[in-house]
Every structure is written in C-alpha cells, then in structure tokens.
Design a protein that fits this description.
21% of the residues lie in helices and 29% in strands. It is of the alpha+beta class and 340 residues long. A hairpin with a 4-residue loop joins strand 1 (14-20) and strand 2. The relative contact order is 0.21.
Length: 340
C-alpha cells in the first residue's frame, strides 16, 4: 500500500484511537492542546454532532482543543466528555476565570448494525483515546471510529463491505502542510477518484463460484427510481463520513469554515453518491500554525487529501462482522468487476 502521509505530520496535532474489537465500535481523538482555529461544514441529512456552533463565525470562542470522531450513533457523543475530562486534568481549555473549559467538537457515525449494538463508545473510551494520542501515524482501517464502519449499504448491510478510517497529507510549498483523517461509513460506494472505478461498496448477488461483482449504488438507484415501496428511508441515519482536516497554514475562523466547505469536494470525488439524506457527512478544520497561504490553495488541497484518506480507509480495512474488505476482493479496482 502506498504511503499517503498522515495528519500527525501537522505541527501541534496528535491522534489517539480507542476501540472494542469484539463489539466493533470505537472512537478517535484529534488533540490540539495548544489550541487551533476551528471550522466545520456539515452536509447530508442525518448528522450527529456536538459543539459545532462555536466553530462558526460570529461566535465568541476562537480556538478548540480537540475533535472527537466516534462510532455508536448518538450514544457515541458521550466519548467527547472523556476528552473534556482529560483536557481539564491537563489544564487545557478556554479560560473563564473560575475554570478552564476544553472546547471539544465531535461527530458520530452509525455502527450499531455490526458487532454489538449494546456496546458504544463512552466517556471512558474517549479518555483512553486521549491517553493513547501520539505524533505517530495513526492506525488505519479497523481502528478507532473506523472499527465498525461499513460502505455500500443500498442492498442492506449483508451486501455491504467493510469501511474504516484513513489519513493522508499534502505539502503546501516548502514547509507547509494540509492533511486529513476520515472515518468512512458511507451509504454509497467508495471509488477511485481518478478512474471512477469502485473500490468497495454494495455487492451484487453472485452465483456460486462466480467472480464477485459490485452492484454499483448509482445503477441500483436508477432502477429503483419511480418504483413504489422501494424508497431508501428505511435505511435513514445509518451512514456518514466524518473527518478532520488539519493544516499549519494560518486561517481565520471564516477561512477555516471555507476550507471545511471545500474539503467536502473530496468526499464527492471518492464516495458515490455523497451527501445524501441518509448520510450525516461532517468535516472539521483545524489550523495550528502561522504560515501564510492563500485559503483557496489550502481548500483545494484539503479536498485532495480527504479523497486520498477515504481511499486509504478502505485499502487498510479488514474483514469483520461477516463483511469482506477491499483486500479480500483484490487490491485494485481492476480486480473486481463492476456491474453498470
């Protein structure tokens, strides 16, 4: 597998995972204990978030101290409380004189259908993820928030494939960097951004002994259009792509939100379809540095590293919960045929 870089290459960023490999759920914490200018952009109709309003322009708080990505659906938002406790113990937070209040935005994905639905990331797991945080390249695939992630669910979970968490980075001139960490639990298929070929997604029903085939979510949607009783609403809320873009470029809060908006183009390039009413796609931006770079350049490269991180997530994923991973069907999209 090619080395696409890591979000931990950004100065001031550390990442920690905590998960339950049996229950197939977990959380991931992106720590920036010295504070970072934050932004957020949420697309799709099924989000689950915490503390996103402080990241928007015209709000008092200017810096955040961590971002939590978690499985467990809405239950998983509790993992952010563990990060808050960890940071308070470290003396990190927004100074309100009587205390320091850590600012920890969070987003969740739905993984209750894989593994055990009665085990979810909680405050204790969020705390452990903070304790595990380091500057090393974070584990990808089945780890942290990606432990129970799946992709390609238009034909139901049994015909889906394993998703995961991935990271990638790109240089901004000589000493600048922009990077992403993304947990991929999409309703749609993950595709190669260059060729459009499906890498992981909904699997067509195959005859015994026949080569595996992808169903192609867009093709299935075309066939379902106009058919009564075949709506997708029954799968609502069970998908999303969540992630963090970090950079050492100096960004204002307004610019950080702009970069988060532009970064969503990376989801659209690597997930087909993206931003549906069945997804709660949410991306955060963290700016930790003072290097001056045109915000348009940062945003353009943010979209690139988000797309790369999504591909890395499925390339590093491994079979779990009875679902195959990309490596089980072939290492490249050309190894698996796609039904159009």
């Amino acid at each position: 597998m090619s080395d696409a870089g890591s979000i931990t290459e950004v100065p001031g960023i550390r990442v920690g995972h905590a998960h339950d490999a049996e229950a197939l759920t977990g959380c991931t914490v992106v720590l920036c204990t010295k504070g970072a200018v934050g932004g957020v952009d949420q697309r799709g109709g099924a989000p689950g978030t915490r503390e996103t309003d402080p990241l928007r322009p015209m709000h008092l708080v200017q810096r955040v101290h961590a971002v939590v990505l978690s499985g467990g659906s809405a239950f998983g938002l509790d993992s952010a409380s563990g990060a808050v406790r960890y940071l308070e113990e470290m003396g990190v937070g927004f100074d309100v004189r009587v205390a320091r209040v850590p600012i920890v935005p969070a987003a969740i994905l739905f993984d209750l259908g894989l593994g055990r639905s009665d085990v979810r990331p909680d405050a204790a797991m969020g705390y452990r993820a903070c304790q595990a945080a380091s500057k090393s390249r974070p584990r990808q695939g089945n780890a942290g928030a990606g432990m129970g992630a799946t992709v390609g669910k238009i034909l139901g979970l049994r015909r889906a494939m394993k998703g995961g968490i991935g990271t990638a980075s790109a240089r901004l001139g000589r000493d600048g960097i922009v990077a992403a960490l993304v947990a991929v639990n999409a309703f749609g298929d993950v595709v190669d951004p260059q060729s459009g070929e499906i890498l992981a997604g909904a699997r067509a029903r195959a005859r015994k002994g026949a080569a595996p085939r992808f169903a192609d979510t867009i093709a299935v949607m075309r066939r379902q259009a106009g058919r009564s009783g075949l709506g997708l609403g029954r799968r609502q809320g069970s998908n999303t792509v969540i992630g963090v873009v970090a950079t050492n470029a100096a960004l204002s809060k307004e610019q950080a939100n702009t970069v988060a908006q532009m970064a969503h183009d990376g989801i659209a390039r690597a997930v087909r379809p993206a931003h549906t009413m069945l997804d709660g796609d949410t991306l955060f931006t963290l700016s930790t540095g003072t290097r001056r770079v045109d915000v348009n350049i940062v945003g353009a490269l943010a979209a690139e590293v988000v797309a790369q991180a999504i591909v890395q997530a499925v390339r590093h994923a491994r079979a779990a919960g009875g679902l195959p991973a990309m490596v089980d069907l072939g290492r490249s999209s050309g190894d698996v045929s796609s039904r159009r």
